[in-house]
Please model this.
Amino acid sequence: MDPGLTVDVRVSETDGVTVVVLDGELDTNSAPVAQQQILPLARDGVRMVLDMAKVPYMSSAGIRMLLSTYRQVTNNGGRIVLVGVADEVKDTMSVTGFLKFFQVYDTLDAGRAAIVQ
Amino acid sequence: MIERVDVQPTRTYGTYRLRAGRPIPFGATLVPGGVNFSVFSRFATSCSLVLFEKGQPEPLVEIPFPPEFRIGNVFTMLVFDLDVENVEYGFRMDGPFDPAQGHRFDQSKVLLDPYARAIGGRDTWGQPPDWNNVYQHRARFVFDDFDWEADRPLETPLEDLVIYEMHVRGFTRHPSSGVKHPGTFTAIRDKIPYLKQLNVNCVELMPIYEFDEFDNSRPSPLTGETLYNYWGYSTVGFFAPKAGFAATGRFGMQVDELKTLVKELHANGIEVMLDVVFNHTAEGNERGPTISFRGVDNQTYYMLTPEGYYYNFSGTGNTLNCNNPIVRNLVLDCLRYWAAEYHIDGFRFDLAAILGRDEQGAPLANPPLLETLAFDPILAKCNLIAEAWDAGGLYQVGSFPAYGRWAEWNGKYRDAIRRFIKGDEAVLPEMTQRIEGSPDLYGGAARGATASINFITAHDGFTLHDLVSYDDKHNEANGEHNNDGDDHNNSWNCGWEGPTEDSAVLELRQRQMRNALAILMVSQGVPMILMGDEVARTQQGNNNTYCHDNELNWLDWTLVEEHADLLRFFRRCITFRRAHPVLRNSGHFQHRDYVGSGYPDISWHGEHLWRPDWSPNSRTIAFMLDGQHAKGGAEHDNSIYVAMNMHWAGHGFDLPPLPPNLAWHVFANTGVQPPEDSWELGSEPRLPDQSGILVGPRSVVILVGR
Model:
């Protein structure tokens, strides 16, 4: 991980599903960097699973990055699901209205299964 | 796309990169690459931008606005690469300290931006502040990128609203509320099913602009617990939602949380009205704190005496100088912001008579501010409601400068209905005016029944339960020896002051609460009910609970079960009103038959048809609304007959004959035990005797002809 950053982004693709593992905190500094790495993946018809299990905290900017990513993926005819969202993050997203845009699953397997259907 | 030229800085200050900013809009605005700052001061000789790391007492840096970045009286600057989630900002201004000339500049103060859209420092309700921190209320940055999808203000016709006045914290703070985040915006969202079930279609939120609950906080002389500025009628920042009302205030996400609440209420058909306080600020008089306006441009923002002291038409120490052109624009910018950015449906203006005073405090015949708001294109569909009086003795109920747009809290409605219900003599002539939507007050040009916001109780005064349980106010808990609060409550305790086990007294109180609500729901105009009245919420006789963050103000949700009968009566009466357009005319009655139905639009009766008893000791009266005249004859509704007997004995009333295919059915009879005190729509039982009805002691009967 770049020592100046608080988040690491790892991308893998299997069976037509792009899995993006975010590792670290998403805030006003790290969110734009994470977004730069994720957005090129938002090509036509992408099926993307964002694995948030290693994201203990997301600031307002981090949550906004997710929604912006969601908009770009769906505008390109793709689909996106979130998995492993920590309870507190999920609560903040719910209270601020962001959660309702997303399909959220507990585990990576559940998210992967949902998105290939 | 070619990159814009203005995303590059033109100079540096230390490590900060800058360029000249734009004067419009005022405040701090996120722009590509940085933040645009803009602040007005007519008399400041210099200004610095003071940046803090979030919550830190010492500034990160102070960047003077270069002289060439000032345009007119506006200091502007674009600062690049700010960490907008972790930085707070303020201003430091230099200028004359000359109170006689109205100037109170103080270089030792860090000033809150008058246009701050989010404010930190009181992020969690009731968390004691560090009073040594030089910057108490700290401006923050806001992402104005909320995803509203298809939402917009609902634009429900004003006459169709049933308003529910509520306090954000009080609604769900009680431990019995069962919500995850008690006392917050998001908790209201959790309770939308309750509001839907009650069938109200507008919530009026008591002040939600950032205020300081520690403003004048003190220990209670009785209990020692902290007394707060709980109601919040003392604004710190007009553009910022109260962070302490948001579960996510500590994450700085109060803006998103409130917008999500508005969006969700709209999705459920419920409008959002804000109680807004533009008559004064939290800075008090010359002994009060310097938070913002006083240090930015005291002479512009406040009404000052010729000697430079603060006029006090608000009763709270200062008076905002609303008809100064600068301040007028601040108010306009503010309301436009809330209408456009938060999709707010309407505004109720606290002590609005002040908004019609000139810079010396004299009432204006044609107040520019009120006219500006009435004709503003962005506010064009917002409801504008005035509390048409102030603490300086200006009482404008019926005469508020309306421009065909402004409605009023009708204090005369409240007083007349209260007096009628408690059995006062000689109230009937006024009562009929109030039930008709106060044509004596609002019959003039371009007004109508919808100019009258009808209410019997509001946050200020007794709850409905206390109105029928106390003769006198009991405000000892406020710590002012019961000297605060209104002495003219027109209340009656039904035979015993306060709590009692006497079943006759309790039964009468139940009936009186129903009488009040029934009359409110069959009155022309726009009804407003107070949070918790539907479940007999008590403030233990306290009629001025502005300072209590406790069970005096919190809605106890166990009452929902305890008073399920009363709640059902409320729901049915509200539903009845919303189902019958004849109860919701926008104009006033003409007292004649202009559709050829055989009855005038409204007819007044007594125990005998067409012969109301107007004598001073009469306490009985009835009226019929002819269904063919609904909405000025544009809609066909059932006819509705209402008999009101506030005498302590029962009285028989003759009934107006209906066409042969129709019969009178009983919608409500407050003299009957629940659940038969009211009926669901369409299930109203047919009255056996169609020629007359006995109305019990102190009871109201509502019939529907179908």
Q: What stands out?
A: The radius of gyration of chain B is 27 Å. Chain B has a mean pLDDT of 97. The longest helix of chain B spans residues 503-521.
